[in-house]
Design brief:
Elements lengths: L1 E4 L5 E4 L2 E2 L5 H11 L6 E2 H9 L7 H19 L5 E5 L2 E5 L6 H13 L5 H14 L11 H27 L4 H13 L4 H13 L3 H19 L5 H13 L20 H10 L5 E4 L6 H12 L7 E5 L12 H11 L12 H8 L5 E7 L2 H4 L10 E6 L4 H7 L2 E4 L5 H12 L5 H11 L3 H14 L2 H9 L15 H9 L4 H10 L9 H8 L3 H13 L4 E4 L2 E3 L2 H11 L1
Parallel strand pairs: 7-10, 7-11, 8-9, 9-10
Antiparallel strand pairs: 1-2, 2-3, 4-6, 5-6, 12-13
Length: 566
């Protein structure tokens, strides 16, 4: 009985013994026919396969000679159960597919893919298929066509290996697949299905740490080569391994994203660019949307942080609670990272930094009081991306910690209009909208409160009448999180007594802005002292230095300062 082996080096066997190889071109002709056994191969196709586009003028005659020699070889090797026939325009070799290892391999895979195939039967046929694989198909056959065939069958082999490995796992023999999977995963690091089944096999044999290392290496390669993270199947296996190791999945602590977030396209692009190069500190006046911007960007970029997203409200300017101690913030994040409360030391900061080392985590430190509160929470490595929000400008972080500063201003006119349109839709009259936007000073918090009140009343015109009366009454949504006055008060209480006094006085100053000389006369202090007080107000964004040495109040801050002054 004659058998043909195309997986690995091509050879012919008769009753178990190797038939002496013939000339390389004769071998190539036989291989080109056997790959399509049972189907006609046109002469032109046969010539292209053998000579790879560089056939001699008499190639057809050479093929006839090789066909004659192959027939003689097959007759001498065994019974005439292999037929090589001349058809119109080509040739065809007829042989039982079971006698050609490449086709037998394909038949076995087809049986294994049958959803009705019992698990024991599937494992049996997949083991047979694995036994046929001696190396890359068509070994020793040169040319582009042979390489294309090899590429195709390599992928089929890898898919078959994954199916076989899962069958072994289901049969309770994960140890048998680890060595071949490890070798293949090293050669094909971008093939996530190999990574996934290898992780599961390692975990099933108790080698949890190695399983996690496999995931980490695969993730690094994907990031470097393709700029992506592992897909859902690999991530699911990773989390299952973590749970099996009595650890927690990657934390996902991001607050809810605003469903109708609008605008801020330039700032989002800057965050995309800046976060790759160190901590980023977003600062701005109360109610300008610092947290909303940070959270929205974080949801868009969450896929970049497979080890999780941590969030801490540092309560730096909270109207109802004291600022959070950095050590307490670290304890909360350690618990989110899976550290048992009983194992958190008195000084948690070193352990906190150790747990973040080497991990691709997004850390949002929201509502920071100042740089001193943030600095202890900055990780030692550069794999964790840190995003800080604060009413303080956090200049100290830029000086000592290489942070990038992103000042956030009020919305543009177009953004403010889009903001209202997203909330009020067809009920928004353009002229009325422009008037309301001006009254709100394009401040997102104020616009959100007005839009919500207009939605309840079904009329923006009614709210406009209240706005025209002046003051901050129309900007009270009924709770601390939706009240402009409450937001301003939290910043006002952070001022020194002289700066608070100056702030109240500024509410009564006519004109669009002031400088240090005018402030010195207003407050009855020396110019240097006036500059220091103006700097204090500007540092926590209760004033804006819109030009060097010239400071102005936002329209609603002016109304607040006026009320305080009275």
């Amino acid at each position: 009985m004659i058998e043909f082996r195309l997986i690995g080096n091509v050879d012919v066997r008769a009753d178990g013994r190797i038939v002496p190889p013939q000339r390389p071109q004769q071998n190539a002709v036989l291989t080109a026919l056997l790959v399509d056994a049972g189907r006609p191969v046109p002469l032109g196709t046969l010539i292209d396969r053998v000579w790879d586009g560089e056939a001699p003028d008499h190639a057809g005659r050479v093929v006839q000679i090789h066909i004659s020699r192959i027939r003689r070889q097959l007759r001498e090797a065994g019974p005439a159960d292999v037929r090589l026939t001349r058809l119109r325009g080509g040739y065809q070799v007829d042989v039982d597919p079971e006698r050609v290892d490449l086709h037998r391999f394909d038949l076995l895979l087809g049986q294994a893919r049958d959803p009705d195939c019992p698990d024991r039967r599937r494992l049996h046929v997949l083991r047979q298929a694995m036994g046929l694989w001696r190396g890359d198909p068509l070994g020793g056959i040169p040319g582009g066509w042979a390489e294309q065939v090899r590429q195709s069958w390599r992928q089929q082999h890898l898919d078959a290996v994954v199916a076989w490995a899962y069958a072994e796992l289901r049969a309770g023999d994960p140890a048998s697949v680890i060595r071949p999977l490890t070798a293949l995963a090293a050669r094909h690091p971008l093939m996530e299905s190999l990574t996934t089944v290898l992780m599961r096999a390692l975990a099933a044999t108790g080698r949890t740490a190695e399983a996690l290392d496999v995931y980490g290496r695969a993730r690094a390669v994907l990031a470097d080569e393709l700029g992506t993270d592992p897909g859902p199947a690999a991530r699911a296996a990773y989390y299952e391994v973590l749970r099996g190791a009595d650890l927690t999945p990657a934390p996902a602590q991001l607050p809810r994203d605003a469903a109708r977030f609008t605008g801020r396209a330039p700032e989002l692009r800057r965050l995309d660019a800046l976060t790759a190069h160190g901590p980023v500190a977003i600062s701005g006046m109360p109610g300008v949307g610092k947290t909303a911007l940070a959270v929205h960007w974080a949801h868009r970029a969450a896929h970049r942080f497979p080890d999780g997203q941590l969030y801490a409200d540092l309560r730096g300017f909270s109207p109802s609670a004291s600022a959070l101690d950095p050590a307490d913030a670290a304890r909360g994040m350690l618990r989110a990272l899976g550290v048992n409360q009983a194992r958190i030391p008195a000084d948690p900061l070193p352990l906190y930094r150790s747990r973040l080392a080497g991990r691709r985590v997004l850390l949002i430190l929201d509502n920071a009081r100042n740089a001193e509160q943030v600095r202890p929470l900055l990780p030692g490595g550069r794999t964790t991306t840190v995003l800080v929000t604060s009413r303080d400008q956090l200049i100290g972080l830029a000086v000592t910690d290489d942070a990038h500063l992103l000042p956030l201003d009020v919305l543009t006119e177009a953004e403010a209009r889009d903001f209202l349109t997203a909330r009020l839709g067809a009920r928004l009259e353009p002229a009325l909208a422009d008037h309301v936007i001006a009254r709100c000073g394009r401040l997102p918090l104020a616009l959100g409160i007005v839009a919500a009140r207009a939605a309840v009343r079904h009329s923006l015109a009614d709210v406009r009448e209240e706005l025209d009366l002046g003051g901050l009454g129309p900007f009270d949504g009924g709770d601390a999180a939706a009240c402009v006055r409450t937001a301003f008060t939290a910043s006002y209480r952070a001022l020194s007594t002289p700066a608070a006094h100056l702030f109240r006085l500024l509410g009564h100053v006519p004109g669009p802005d002031v400088d240090a000389a005018a402030t010195a006369g207003l407050a009855g202090v020396e110019p240097d002292r006036a500059r220091a007080l103006l700097t204090e107000l500007a540092r926590i964004n209760l004033l804006t230095e819109h030009r060097p040495g010239r400071y102005r109040l936002h329209t609603l801050l002016r109304a607040y300062a006026t009320q305080l002054g009275r």
